[in-house]
Structure formats: C-alpha cells, structure tokens
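Hey, quick one: can you model this chain's 3D structure?
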Amino acid sequence: MRNITSSICILALLFLFNSMATYAQSVDLVDSNDPSKWEGLVVVNSEVKHSKENSFELYGKYPTELITKDMIAVDMDKAYTLSAWLRTLDSALPACGNIGLRMYDKDKREIKIANVDAFANTESRLVGDVVQGAKEFLIEKNPLYLEIKTVSIAFNAKDDYSDLPNFDISPRVSKVVDLGENYKVILSSPMPKSYKAGTKIRLHRPWGAPLYWIRMGWYPPEWTHVTNTMKSEAVYGAPIDKFWHGTKYVRVFVWFGNWNLKPKDGAKLLVSDIDLIQED
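Sure thing. Here's the predicted structure for all 280 residues.
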C-alpha cells in the first residue's frame, strides 16, 4: 500500500510540474493596466473597459499615438500573438484607428517598409559614381525598372537579402529613362549620400511607415477583438504574419484615425486588454 501511495504522489507531482511548465511557456510582454508603461496620448478611462482595470482613450488628429514605452526583445524561434479589444465610445461619433508594431534592429534603429520591402529580381548596378546632392544617375539595364512604379532604390544590396534592413535608401524615383546602353534614374529629391560606381542596387517600396495594418478602419460602439500571430523572420517584404527581416525588438502601438478616414471632432477610440503573448 505504501508503494502504491508513493507512486500516486509521484504521478501527482509530475502532473503538477508539467502543468506549471506548460503554463510558463506563455508570457504577456505588455501591461495595459499600468499607464506608466505607455507613452503618447495616455488617457485612462476606468469606467468603460473590457475586462482589465481600465482602457485607454484616444482622440484628436491622425496619427495620435499610444505606444509601449520600452522596446520588447523578441525571439524568432517563438510565436507572438498581439491581442486587444477596441470600440468607439459614442455611437454618434464613430472612431477609427490602426493597431500594429514598430520593429527595430539590433542597434535599435526603427525598421520601416522602405528598409525591407524589396522587389524580387530587381538587382542592378551603378554605371558611374553617385554624389551627394545628385538627382540623376546611370544604372545598368534591368527591364523591371521601367515596369514597376512608385519605388525607391536600395544601395549596397545583396542577392540573399542579408543587407536587410537596408538603410541606404534613395528618395522616391520620379522617372526611369531608357538611354539605350543604360538607364537614367531621376529622383524626386537630392541623394543624401554618395556611392561608388559598381555599387549593387535594388528596387524597394518607398513608404516610411511601420506595420500599422494588423487592424485598421472604423470600430463599432461594442468591444471588437483584434488578434494577430507572428512567428519567424521574413526573408524580405512587409508581411503581418512574420517579423520583418532583422527585427530584434518591437513596440506595440495604436493610432487614432486613418490617413484616409477622418473621425469627427469629439470622436473617441477606446483600447483595452492589450496583450503581446510570447509562446513556444
């Protein structure tokens, strides 16, 4: 009987330890109950909330921002789920907004769309030197430069995308002209830096925005759940299900309004129960 009792106790302890280990695999990396952990427009509403102690109340003009104060380290071998509840405070004054992540590299430089959103097979090279202040330069021919519109050019590009996030980005391209032997690139504004002839280049999308479209648009006057899971690192591009290339840290943010959707004066957006859950 004593051996049976001992075996039962051991099994119970093993079950308890396994349960504790499973529970420990998930951790919430943000605290939406403590306003001191956030910056931007940190207005607390302790009356209208979802399930935690309070909600944050956003209003004003786009893009009024609420953002975690500290950068949060992320591990590419783990999955992360961003979750929040949002609603319009007053049905007579609809509110809209965006929720997303600002991502940062190992040096804590912010990674924006232009730094990672490359167009495949658009590699070329500079025919001559490009000097700081120039608005035109020559490149080797690649027909995609005549086909793809609304771009910038990334310098010091590499075939395997290991240059990403690339911070050697030109101003937006205005026009590409076929000169026969080479192409001439005409920029919308002067080059901020100089580059040598032969430097490898690639086309990128030109936008200087973070990942803002995990959820965007108008919200009803009832609580709406937003959730998005990200795991591993994208080779290139700006997806919502993978971290952008080179990401080591993130900050969670919410914007009030959208660039093309303008709430009326007095509209308020409530955000509650913001979580960033790290899972194995």
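One thing worth noting: The longest strand covers residues 269-279.
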